[in-house]
Amino acid sequence: MLAAFIRNDDLWLKIDKQERRLTNREYIRFPKWSKDGSWIAYLRGRKDSRNPDELWLYHLPTNKHLKVKEEVSNHFQWSPRKTELSFMIQNDVYVLTIEPSETLSIRLVAKSIENFSWLPSGDGLLVSKKKNQLLNSDILLYQVMLGKNQQEPVINHFYTVPVGSNEIVVSTSQFKWSHDHRWLSFLLVPTASVSADSNTLCILSADGKLFRRIDEIDWFRWAPKKNILAYISGTGREANINKQLRAIQATSTKGLVYTPDGLVDGDFTWKNDGWLFVSRLVEDEQAPLHLRPLPSLFKVNASTGKAKPASYPELNEGDYAPEFFNRQLFWISNTNPRTADVMFSDGRNVGKHWIKNITLASSYYGKWNWQEVFSLYRL
How many CB atoms neighbour CB 279 within 10 A? Predict the structure, then answer.
């Protein structure tokens, strides 16, 4: 088991039972693993900064840290195939290539875009861009094919997302592909304040021939081997009110609702095509936000919706951010106002501590951004 995590704002490495601190008195967020597990990209900033924007790399074999660029957003992504990293400065996208000699080369590949993701092949990016500056202008999707370092990217129009005259859409989320790469999903995002309340989930076929709007949602994830998209549905910025776990086939117009009345679902992950794990709590609209019930994990049958407990937190503890990998369930247990713990279970025990005292992630109306402080490496 291998993970990068943040403790006391520093970057740490966990290998099975061994821990190692990688930075000293820094302010680190958003650790992300390269495909081969030899690099960690992360953002570094000042202690008094809530938005660190210096992009750095850590090389595990040589124990070296390399600074890349400043003013980088937290949307940076490793290529799914190569040792390349894409990142955004303001609205321009760059690709960093790590040569075999460990030297870095950076090139600008797209200007004035809203968001981006790697294509599944790793040969290029899919980017989104506003047609014009009007809030109700269409969203244009382009494929940016990279070629070799010395070659100019080849940019091809892929699809135009129609936006109604009475709509406000300023950007998209990043893109997620189904396991067979025949479908992609993304969010249409209104202005920043409205986005806290309502984003629209869309499904688009990889040939650009079928586009559908699905629901107003918060989070989404494809099944491991089927074209089934699970998502958290519900408007409103509060994460512990009016949020349901649902799933829909890519070609279907009718989906399934897994959340029983009186309950609220949050973070989730797929165990396999037949089961999901979700962070679930009792809905309470009356109590102040900090006094509302805390979640525990449930295992949900994707066919029937029947659920059974998967974790048993202590009083005043909440279980979040489930991840299933290598036949083990990992999650984060929020144990006090300043730190949290990473737990795991192999199915033979209720839950064991793996990493104690990680830095608490930021939260917004009950929604925690645990990617800021924890990253599990998946082989």
Answer: 27
Residues of the domain holding 121:
82-174
Kindly indicate the confidence band of residue 149, based on its pLDDT and cuts at 50, 70 and 90.
low
> Does 132 map to a domain?
yes
Closest CA to 107 of 139, 144, 60: 144
Is the pLDDT confidence value at 76 over 70? yes
Compute the distance between CA of residue 326 and CA of residue 271 in angstroms, rounded to an integer: 10
Element (H, E) at 2: strand 2-7
Binned at pLDDT 50, 70 and 90, residue 178 comes out as: very high
Buried b / exposed e along 96-133 (16+ C-beta atoms within 10 A): bbbeeeeeeeeeebbeebbbbbbbbeeebbbbbbbeee
In a domain, 128, yes or no: yes
Mean pLDDT score of the chain: 92
The set of residues, in sequence order, having a beta carbon less than 8 Å from that of 63 and lying 6+ positions away, is none
In a domain, 31, yes or no: no
State pTM to two decimals. 0.94
Domain count of the chain? 1
Contact 4, 40 (CB under 8 A): yes
Cβ atoms within 10 Å, residue 221 = 17
pLDDT digits (tens, 9 = 90+) for 18-62: 999 999 999 999 999 999 999 999 999 987 777 899 999 999 999
Residue 331 · residue 320 · CB < 8 Å:
yes
What is the rounded CA–CA span in Å between residue 328 and residue 318?
Answer: 19
